[in-house]
Amino acid sequence: MNYSILIYFLVIFIRLINTFEFDDDHDEDKQMALQTSLPIFEPIQHLTSSIFDTLSQSNLTFNSIIFPDQTINLDGLGIHSIESDTFVNCPLPITTMILSSNYLSDLPNNLLHIFSSTLIHLNLQHNQFRSLDNSYFLRRLEYLRTLDLSKNQLYELHKQDFIGLKRLETLILRENKLTYLTSALFSRCRTITTLDLSDNQISRIDSHTFRSLYRLKVLLLSNNPLGQRSLTNHLLEPLKNLEYFDLENTQLDNLPPFLFISNQRLQSIKLRRNNFHTSLSDSSHSLQRTFCHAHSLIEIDLVSTHLRTLDVCTYDQLPSLRRLYLMNNPLHCSCDLFYLKYGDIYRVLLTDDNGDIDLYLDRWISRPELRRHLENSHARGDFHRLPIELSLFARCATPKQWSGREVGNISGIFTQCQQRWSMIEEECQNYCQLEQEIPTSTLTINNNNNNSSEFRISFILTYFIQILFVLSFWLIH
């Protein structure tokens, strides 16, 4: 019997089976692709109203443009321009318009007016808008709540750009080319709660820029070359409801005292990647009294800010402060720093005649059940401040015996720090009283005084000139 023939037919049979299985898998994959992927289409240079008439005749299906949730999605279609009557024949009321990732530099003034009573979200990110001056396509969008203009080429903004946006809540302007924020810039959209200005080139902010933003809760200014000149009490004074403030990488090396005194709902501030370096021999600290009277602050992010020491009394006077993020800093681990870690609970433990205070300190701040009891004691007023978490992975650079060790893992310091801790309590008692700040008033106050002096001088000169004019007229006649 010739076995080679049998082997030949066996190989052919196996190949046929594999072919059928592959075709079945291929059909399933093809069906899934048809159900989940968007169709392939040619770029649309100029968009007109005929789009809704021709959708059914092209490989662009109607459902790939208009979705059941009342969304028009024109993302990434290569659009350079749009006719003003493009959406006149749109069959549904639209709440969300997505025009992102195109080549738009302007829109017709009447383009969106058909949606003036329904449009809530407008996404124009990643286009080529340079200015909104003389552009009126946003006007009469009274119900618009979210406007995304990020990743454009905007180099200027004016308050008239936002006329008519009476209900706007979220304004996203990140990754543009803005350099200066003018006075009362957002006065026409006072309902904003979230404002994203990050990743621009902003170096100057007028002291009245945020004048009308009483409802603002989230302000993002990260990655701008601000410096501390622009950040004054006067600038932040209107932001009564501010809760989160992002100043990451804004070229700060210090901030003025009492900066957040008007922001009584501020809970979190992000200052990472700035430069607050001070030497150990320097008697002053960075951020001295900066957070005084910011009584709602829960966390402060100071990661990668070159901090060596902290102004202990500034943080001690924040009763709500729970977390300090200090990773990637050359920290000098002193009794002052550990005082923030343990708070003043050691006094409570002393009154209870506990033997090993160090042991009890670590237990109280680490064990959940004791921590809850601690919080209840704090609520009753047994002590004024809870321990502050100094973040995982924050390490000591000095002194030598603790170099390289995580701050949270150092214990057994009560004996050497007890005397210093009692001194800190006395030093910090009246540290944040406002009258102490009068000699070192912020630049804003001095500027106001200078302005008032200049006004008085100009008034006197004007009055004197008028008298001379009357006298000369009387002598002539």
Jot down its keywords.
single chain; 477 residues; 10 helices
TL;DR of this structure?
By secondary structure, the protein is an alpha/beta fold.
Question: What secondary-structure arrangement, pairings included, does this model have?
Answer:
Layout: H1 3-36, E1 46-47, H2 51-54, E2 66-67, E3 71-73, E4 81-82, E5 96-98, E6 121-123, E7 146-148, E8 170-172, E9 180-181, E10 194-196, E11 204-205, E12 218-220, H3 233-236, E13 244-246, E14 268-270, E15 299-301, H4 312-316, E16 323-325, E17 331-332, H5 335-342, H6 345-351, H7 357-366, H8 368-380, E18 396-398, H9 414-428, H10 443-476
Parallel strand pairs: 1-4, 3-5, 5-6, 6-7, 7-8, 8-10, 9-11, 10-12, 12-13, 13-14, 14-15, 15-16, 17-18
Antiparallel strand pairs: 2-3
Helix pairs in contact: 5-9, 7-8
Q: What strand line-up does the widest sheet have?
A: 2-3-5-6-7-8-10-12-13-14-15-16
Shape: elongated
Main pleated sheet? 12 strands, mixed
Poorly predicted runs: 29-40, 436-461
Helix/strand-derived class?
Answer: alpha/beta
Tell me the number of helical segments per DSSP (H or I, 4 or more residues long): 10
Return the string of H and E elements: HEHEEEEEEEEEEEHEEEHEEHHHHEHH
**Whole-number mean pLDDT:** 81
**Intertermini distance:** 146 Å
Helix proportion of residues, in percent? 25-40%
